[in-house]
Amino acid sequence: MLRWWKRLPILYKVLSGNAVVIIIGAIGGTYITQQLVQASVAGLILFFASVGIVLSLLINYFILRTALRSIDVLQQTVERIDRGDTTVRANIDEIDDPQFHHFAKSLNTMLGRLATHTHMIEANRAQLHLLSRQVLSAQEDERKRIARELHDDTSGSLARILLNIEMCSTLVPKQYHEIHDKLDATCTLGEQTLENVRKMVFDLRPALLDDLGLAAAIRWYAKNNLESLGIQLQFEMASGLRGAPMVETALFRIAQEAITNIVRHADAQHVNIQLSHSPTVWKLTIQDDGRGFDLKSMLDESAANYHWGLFGMRERAELLSGTFTIESTIGNGTRLLVEIPVEQMP
Ligand SMILES: Nc1ncnc2c1ncn2[C@@H]1O[C@H](COP(=O)(O)OP(=O)(O)OP(=O)(O)O)[C@@H](O)[C@H]1O
Ligand SMILES: [Mg+2]
Q: Whose CA is nearest to atom 28 of ligand 1?
């Protein structure tokens, strides 16, 4: 009987409870009136009203307590979901009310689906993360290979061609001015080409990065690209720090893109580069006083307009569990901050 009562929807519980109060009031009232006809009418009214109120309060209290227990169970479940625990499920055994029981079952089904989807998304994200790392690592290996070939093969051949031209020049008698002019022009062109190849080799894989470390490589790259534009450079970098090759490469590539952006877009007068390294984190800050830009609209449009630089910088930092923050104000320059943990997951 109690089970049947508990399983009644709350509406019927309240209705039947109040019906019981009225029935008890009607029967009990009539009986008591018959027994006590001599008592004063005012006394009877007061007596019935008090008994009716107390009974009604007790019954409604009991009904609402039962109904609220189901709501309590649901509320506790929802609060745990709010706190981020998606493994929680509503305990349907504790919910007797059929409407709330049904609601809790639907909630549990939805949570089950959410858990499956979250699991899938996490698995895909981990796979994407791994793939991106492999792509970047393959890209670095390929850059190294091309840089080595350009250095050992192309640069070496160009240097030998230049030597041969110089030797030819010494063999040609001085009165053949036209031939000398042509040989000199070819030499100049050859030297320029050799210089360009060296620059390409450095851009592809700065030997300095492997030999002298990150600070030296960033300093060299910034000086080479920014000083010729009349930009004043300020460095705050502790030299001699060495990190995991993966971290050094990522930070160097980020600095490279940031410097390229300053050359292409900033129109800056001063650039400040800071590199520091605590026991737990590498920090790179690059700040310019150039024209700045509207960050929000740029991030919205970047992918659509094939601006991959900012996106790539963030990607590189996040792949190593780091963060990338950029602040820019129109007319007030741009500042980017990259933080990458020293310890890397295998
Ligand atoms: N230091 C900066 N100063 C001013 N504007 C900048 C700076 N860095 C980036 N920007 C703005 O942000 C935009 C996006 O930069 P991002 O590096 O993503 O793309 P991009 O340099 O245009 O192209 P790429 O994909 O070749 O890097 C730039 O087009 C430029 O308008
Ligand atoms: Mg760019």
A: 265
